[in-house]
Every structure is written in structure tokens, then in C-alpha cells.
Amino acid sequence: MLYNYLKVAIRNLFRHKTYSFLNIVGLALGLACSIFILLWVQDELSFDRFYENAENIYRVEQDQFYSGESYHVNVTPFPIGPGFKSEIPEIENAARLAYQPLLIKYKENAFYESEIVAADQSYLDIFGLGFVKGDKSNALHEPYSIAISEELAEKYFGKEDALGKILTINNKYDFKVTGLIEKIPLNASFRFQAAIPFEFLKETGRWSESWGANSIITFVKLQHGADLTKVNKKITELVSKNNEDSQTQYMLAPITGLHLFSYFGFGKPDGAIQYVYIFSGIALFVLLIACINFMNLSTARSANRSKEIGMRKVVGANRKNLINQFFGESLLLSFIGMIISLIIIALLLNQFNDITAKEISLSIFFDYKFVLGFLVITIFTGIIAGGYPALFLSSFRPVKILKGSLKSGVKNSIFRKVLVLFQFSLSIFLIIGTLVVYNQLIYMQNKNLGYDKEHVLYFQTSGELAENYQLIKDEFLNTKGVIDVSGANHPPSMIGSNSGGANWEGKDPEQGVLIGTNVVDFNYTKTMKIELLAGRGFSKEFQSDLPTDSTGKFLVNEEVVKVMGVTNNEAIGARFEFMGVKGSIVGVMKNFHFNSMRTKIEPLAMVLAPEYISFTVVRIAPGNISETIDNMKAAWESILPGYPFEYRFIDEDFERLYRTEERMVDLLKYFSAMAIIIACLGLFGLASFTAEQRKKEIGIRKVLGASEIKLTYLLCRDFLLLVIIASFIAWPISYYILGGWLESFAYRINLSSWMFVVSGLLTMVVALVTVGWQAVKAAIANPVDSLRNE
Predict the structure, then answer these.
(1) Bridge partner residues of 145 (DSSP)
(2) Are 695 and 786 contacting, i.e. CB atoms less than 8 angstroms apart?
(3) H helix or E strand, kind and range, residue 458
(4) H helix or E strand, kind and range, residue 558
(5) For 646-672, what is each residue's pLDDT tens digit?
(6) Which among 771, 589, 586 has a CA at the least distance from the CA of 686?
(7) How many Å apart are CA 408 and CA 135, to the nearest integer?
């Protein structure tokens, strides 16, 4: 019986080549797109799950409260980790982590490395990182020890054995290589190239014994079966005991959820889970569009197979036999489509990895989970695609079939139109989604930040380089092509926030305020071209701006003035206290962005302190930028020959903030185009079938004087009407869903009517081109050929 089903299915495959081709290509493209998306989704869901005992590892987080609002923070005080094991028995182990950029030197090789962490030895134990060489259990016990990646080992030592070698840190400290860390997978939330002992932060000046200074990441490993609610309460009580002013609520976040449910900055959810939901939906949409093609083309050809069905019923086939036969045909097409889709995936996997920044390899084809999942999806596709046609075709009555009185029927025609309507609605939704995400990305990239980010670069001048900051500044100010030079503790895209004991005259003692803070040099506002709304910037003409002990002057933004409840002019000269510095406000800056567009501009205060500069900021003249940078490099090497000149442009930092949206636009663009192509394959088949069915009608109309244009319109009209109806269905749904997505951005575009109109018009044009070719072909045909038998 199975052999017979297979033989008939193959025979029908070759008998109806055009329809088989359309079905197979549609299913292959649908499966390929869906599998690509599901590979991406699987990778996103796999983040941090490869660690041993991952289910017991947590990051310590907290909710802080300011002016009645809650801010979620994922950093903690320095002393919190060591207190855990002695105070909270449910915590099996705890570790602290802090990213610490360093200058690393070995012989002539010297580079600034940003992916360096200072970590407790227990971090290696909790996460079970693999070591290629060295003793993991003691790798970070010694004060000046360093464990490095294989990549870093090759960078500095080439083919030499790195173990035991000495690396010079910041031109001052000699660190011994105690281990080679295995490559940390890309699906790890915390990746680094080297780890040094956490205690080294005391040497860098970052250490703090305060229970109120939050600047490090803390992880814990819980005893199996520990009560999370009780542990959260104990952590909160521990911090409150050591910091009476603490009003924070501590909680543990599972390591396996950090990537999916992480927070951006302070309090803004920004995990990948929303994109997992979005693209999972798109995978389903694309697969449904391919399945609808199969349903439509199968039911449209029902009249052509009616005699076959009638004869089979006459010779004894029951409905179950026929259903099994049609399911067999759909499954055969699905499996052929699956084979073609695997070839497509293999050919395009590298390009897909480039777009998504993943490292998915062809070895996935040999993973039993992938194979099993792919088979399930293929069978599911075959069943969904073939389900309605099997039930519909098997219901034909043999007497009517053999008498020739069977007609396609109104219900069947309406069902096909509903399916086409559904296809077009999904396609229009994807087009609108692509337009909205793309325009939001362009808006964020081009929005005025409140300062001029173009032609501004910065580089580190912390540690040993801080002593030479003024020398560097003076040298660069005399370099051809350099317009201005200043400095700051943080570049604009990395300014953090702090409660910092902000105080001013008339402030409610109970009012908690979160304020961004940055230490800057003279002429910072001039170098960055930050507009001043009142007062002045820091200038050497006013030496009183420089702090003495715990007094100094402040520049604040509009948000600080709003919180103070005064006007810009009233703020000038007003008493202000922040971060232990008491003084007055000398200038009010126009609001500028120092975080992503996802968050609102927060209050910001700047204090002048040239001796605490960590980054030098340089504005260069537009034009011959490469020549200016060469001049700067030559000037740098003349005064600091032992340090590499490594810099970054500020505009590149802000572009990096929106990489997720860039990748989303690329994926939406490709998959939306693919969904439309798949829909058009089905539309082409239906148009061909419709033209064939109405061949005699067209011949009669043409004989009676109908023009070719009128006949073309007649054949296209129904399809264009479906596009219009689909537009009216897709528009409100798109408005609701995409409007919700835009709500995650504090600064966003409006959903403009043109996006909806363009999506409908584009779909209409594509449908017209697809159907039009068949319509014109039918309209220009000789009516004699279609009426010869009448």
C-alpha cells in the first residue's frame, strides 16, 4: 500500500511539473528561512546554559528607589561578595568581577586590551572555565598572576609556550602567565581575553570599601534546592546591616536568563527575549505562507484530479485510503523541499553568520537534536500543507465525478481567497515591520545628540599616562589638523549615574535623585560643542573653578535644573553638592544624550578635576583625517615612545549601541523579501490556473469586442482586491504590535501613514507583476484556440 502511495505521488509529481516546481520551491524556501531563524533563536536561548551547574549560578542585582521610581541595577558594592559565604549558608560560593582595561606589553608588542577582567579565584571555580594549560585551581591566587586566552597568547608570544612568561602591565607591573583559558563561546554573556586577581584593583585606585559604591559584578552559586526568596531577603538584610542608608532591594538573577532578560543601563529591560518572540513569529509566518501555497494550488487543481479520485473510489478505495494518498504526496514534496532547503542552508550559512554575528557551523547538521527537530518541522509542514487538500479531495462523490457534473464550488473558491488574503496580510505586516525598524534605526543614528560627535576621537590617558596628560594635551594642540583638546573621566557614551548624596538649597531630605556624573577638564564643553543655556563652561580664566579638597564648581544639564525646581538663570551661582564635592553651579548645559535612545536623558553634573582625567578627547578638522591622525601619532611617539597610540571615534561608539537593531533590520529585510517571493510563487500558480479555467470566457469576451487591456484588468481585479483587503487587515494589527515595540525606546519615530500606504502599494505592484504576466498572456491569446471545441 505504501509503495503504491509513493508510486502515485511520484507519478503526479512529474505529471504536473509546473505546480510541483512551485510547491517544492515554495516549501524549500519556507523551510530554509524558518530553519535559519530557528538556528538563531536556538543560539539566543542557549546563552550561558553550557556552564556546569548553570541552574545554580546567579548574578546579584538590586532595585534602587529615587523620587518614588524604581531603578534596576546589576552592579554591587565591593565588600558584598566576601560577606556572603560567612553570613548566608545557602550560598555555596561567591565571586566578584570587574572589567579593567590595561596596557599589556611583551618585548616590542604593546597593546591596550579592553577585554580584561579582575576576578576572584572563585570565579574560575563557579563557572568551571576550561584551561588548555596551567592549574585552574591556583591560577589567580598569586598577586601578580594572569590567565590569558589562546588568542592573546598567540598575539604576544607567537608559537612560544606562554606558560610562565612575564607580561608587563601599564609599564609598571610584571605579571606571570599562570594559565591558558579555553576559548569562551560566543553564547556567553561574559567573555574576556585575560583574567587578573581581583585584589589588583587596589593598585588601580578603583577599590572601595564602601557598601554604597556600586561598580562591580557579583556572582553566587547556591546550594541545590536553596529558597531564592529567603536568600534575596538575607542579602538585602546583609547590605542594610553594613549600610544604614541603604533603601535597596536585592535579588538574584539566574545566569541562564541574563542575555534574554537583561537590563539596559538603569532600570530599562533590554534583553533579547523580545527579538526571540518576534523572529519565532516570523519563522511561523514564512512557513505558513509556504503551506498556504500548497493548499491553494492543490485545491485549485481539484477538477484535474477528479476522474482519478472517482475511479479509485469505484474500484474500492475508501476515504481513508485517499486521505493517506494525498498526505503521502504532501509529505513527499515536503521531504524534497527539505533536501533543497538543507542545500540552501549549507550554501548561505556563512553569510547568515556574518549578518547575525553568530558562529553556527555545518556540524549542526550532525546534531541529533537538529536532525530530529528538522524532521519534525518537515513532517509538520507536510501535514499542515496537505491537511485541507486531503480532506477536500477525498470528499468528492464518485457518481458526480464520473458524470462530469463536479464543479469546483463557491466554498472552495472562497477558502482559497481567504488563504491568499492571509498570505498578503502577513507579507504586508513584515514589510511595515521592516520599514518601522529601519526608520527607527536611522532616527537613532542621525538624531542630534546635543553635541557634535563628528570628527571627535578619544584615547586612554589613565594610570601612568595620567601623569603626562597635560604634556599630551599641549603637544596635540600644536599638531596640524587638531582643533581642540580636552579630557574626561568617561567618554560621552560611557557616563554612569550615581545617587552621590546630591544636595541643594530647598531640597527635600527624603528625595532621592539619580544623577549622571563626569569629571572633565577645561574647555570640555567647547571641545564637544555642547551648548550652554546659561552661565559659562570651565575655563582657565577662572582658576576658582578648580576643586580644592572638597570644594569645586559644577556644570549641570537641564534635567538637574528641573529637579531643583528653578530656572536656568536662577541655577547659576546656586549652592550644589554632589559626590562629596561642595560648591556652586557655574553653567547650565543643554540636554545631550549620554546613553542609548532607549532611555530618557537623565540629570547630569560635571565637575572640573584635570588630575583625574582617564580619557583625552580631541576634535580634529574635517578633510584629511588620515593625515591628522598620522601627525598625532608622530607627536605621541615623540613624547611617549613606550605606549601604543590607540584611539576610537565617538560616533563609532554610538553606532555600536544599535548593532542589535542593525542586525534586526537586515534579518527582517531578507526574510520579508523571501516571504513575498514565496507568496508570489503561489500567486503565479493561482493566476495560471485562473487564466486556464477562464480561457473560454476570455475567448468569448474577445470575440464580442473586449480589449486586451480590459481582459487583463478582468483577470487581475480579484487579486488586487485581495491585496487591498489584506492591507486593511494588516494595518491595524501592525500599528498595535509595532507601536508596542517602539514603546521600548524613550526617543522614537511616529508611525507615519506613508509606511502603511507604501507597504500596500509595494505588495500591489508585486502582485500585479506576478499576475499580470499570466493575465496578458491569456488576453493576447487567439480566441479561436480556446473556442475550437465549442
Answers:
(1) 176
(2) yes
(3) strand 456-460
(4) helix 558-564
(5) 899 998 888 887 888 888 888 888 888
(6) 771
(7) 76
